[in-house]
Design goal:
The complex is a heterodimer of chains A (96) and B (365). Chain A is an alpha+beta fold. Chain A has 3 helices and 5 strands; from the N terminus they run ββββαααβ. In chain A, β3 and β4 form a beta hairpin. Classes of the chains: A alpha+beta (96), B alpha/beta (365).
Chain lengths: 96, 365
């Protein structure tokens, strides 16, 4: 049995095989298409997921987001990023 | 009335033909003959229209979709249209070559049905020799091909004692997702209700078993659980609400709000041969009949949960009360609830385990 992946700042997240990040033209929003479920991403969620390229660590992604969303406290961004990644990893949508 | 939202997913029931004979099959009692099935070009048109009106995913189902030789073409057409593709299969005929051609066409996910955790139970319930072993081999091939896998288990009185083993089986074959779906009682399952209805003790145990497994397999296996609604306090939000999320096309092209909707007498279902999907989704009588909350009777109309469960299941309401617009009798607030549960409990206690198998010759026509 494969073990649960636990996300920390060192983790390097990416979408799992055959999971798609897609822009939905009808709803005009970003989505993740996964087995028998769709996730509609709001702007912050898309900002995180779109940076998960299999090269950037969670820490790098947080730094990048701090630069992109000036004024938001780093600790809050880090908490949000780690929580979102853990949720998607637990759902089998992402690997790290 | 609020604006009609676009559908999330197309359920494409390619055929009612199937090598298995599961006694709870969700297909109608009147099975569609092969001559009436949509052809490849018709299905490709339906798939393109589904993508245009907002569907994000297509689920190829049946019957057994692999009975049709053109599934690869339909998968390729769906990928081209931008839909996420899912094959829902019994998998007993899914050999290496077929799987590879589906992968080459762009298939993204496979759901394999299992009837039990062991060969004797699985083969008996499916009414097909060696079904269980074939399914396990096919599921392993799906994982070897690198595709995500869901293991589907329809549960009832005659396999619920294996619930933990089913989830362990799902993990052992590399499934990342499992569906534990209690039988829904209309069509074939209603005919077999006495053989399928769980006992109260099984029901009481089931939710605890699922909760414990969710904890045990957190991050390893996602478990989607369809509750046994006869014994529930409130009904399930069937299909996420009538005409809200799903659009189901039958083998002959009838467009249905759910796969069982044809069991409701007095509703007319338009065909993709006569009207576009967009037209049917937004303006057909069948889709608008039970959409939203305006159609609801009391106690639904003033219920605080009316936009949570959307009145439950119309097919079940019709099957039990004869009126599709009545409150789902699975709801404890329905006048028919008490009698329904009493009848079901009595049937479960009689231990009549013989099935009426789902076959064309025992089909109603």
């Amino acid at each position: 049995m494969s073990a649960r992946i636990i996300i920390d700042v060192q983790s390097v997240p990416r979408l799992a095989p055959h999971i798609r990040l897609r822009f939905d033209k009808v709803r005009e929003c970003w989505t993740i298409q996964a087995p028998e479920r769709s996730f509609v991403l709001d702007v912050p969620a898309h900002a995180i997921v779109s940076r998960c390229d299999g090269n950037a660590s969670a820490d790098t992604i947080v730094n990048d987001l701090c630069a992109a969303f000036v004024g938001a406290p780093r600790e809050i961004i880090e908490k949000d990023v780690l929580a979102l990644l853990q949720d998607f990893v637990d759902k089998g949508v992402m690997l790290a | 009335m609020t604006a009609i939202e676009p559908p999330m997913a197309l359920l494409a029931e390619l055929t009612h033909r199937c090598p298995l004979q599961c006694p709870y099959c969700s297909n109608p009692l009147h099975l569609e003959r092969p001559a009436g099935e949509l052809n490849t070009a018709e299905w490709l048109r339906v798939i393109r229209q589904a993508a245009e009106i907002g569907c994000m995913q297509v689920h190829f189902s049946g019957g057994e979709p692999l009975v049709r030789p053109d599934v690869e073409k339909l998968v390729a057409g769906a990928v081209e249209a931008g839909l996420y593709t899912n094959l829902i299969t019994s998998a007993v005929t899914l050999d290496r070559e077929r799987l590879q051609s589906l992968v080459d066409a762009g298939l993204e996910h496979v759901q394999v049905s299992f009837q039990d955790s062991t060969p004797p139970g699985g083969d008996r319930i499916a009414g097909y020799r060696n079904a269980h072993a074939k399914k396990i081999s096919a599921a392993q091939r799906v994982r070897e091909a690198g595709l995500p896998l869901t293991a589907n288990f329809v549960v009832h009185r005659q396999n619920l004692h294996h619930l933990e083993d089913m989830l362990e089986l799902a993990v052992s074959i590399g499934a990342r997702r499992a569906e534990i779906a209690n039988v829904q009682y209309y069509g074939w399952a209603l005919r077999n209700r006495a053989a399928l209805m769980p006992s109260r003790a099984q029901i009481d145990e089931m939710s605890g078993t699922v909760a414990a497994a969710r904890e045990k397999y957190q991050g390893v296996l996602v478990i989607d659980y369809v509750v046994p609604d006869y014994y529930a306090q409130y009904p399930k939000p069937c299909m996420g609400g009538w005409g809200r999320r799903f659009i189901n096309v039958s083998p002959s092209g009838k467009v249905l709000p759910c796969h069982a909707a044809e069991t409701i007498a007095g509703l007319f279902f338009d065909s993709v041969r006569d009207r576009s999907l967009e037209d049917i989704w937004s303006s057909s009588d069948a889709f608008n009949r039970f959409r939203g909350t305006a159609w609801m009777p009391e106690p639904c109309k003033s219920c605080a949960r009316r936009e949570i469960d959307w009145g439950g299941c119309r097919c079940q309401a019709f099957a039990v009360t004869g009126d599709a617009a009545s409150t789902d009798p699975a709801c404890s607030l329905s006048a028919a609830h008490e009698n329904l549960v009493a009848a079901a409990t009595q049937e479960a206690g009689a231990f009549l385990d013989d099935f009426v198998y789902r076959r064309f010759r025992s089909s109603g026509r």
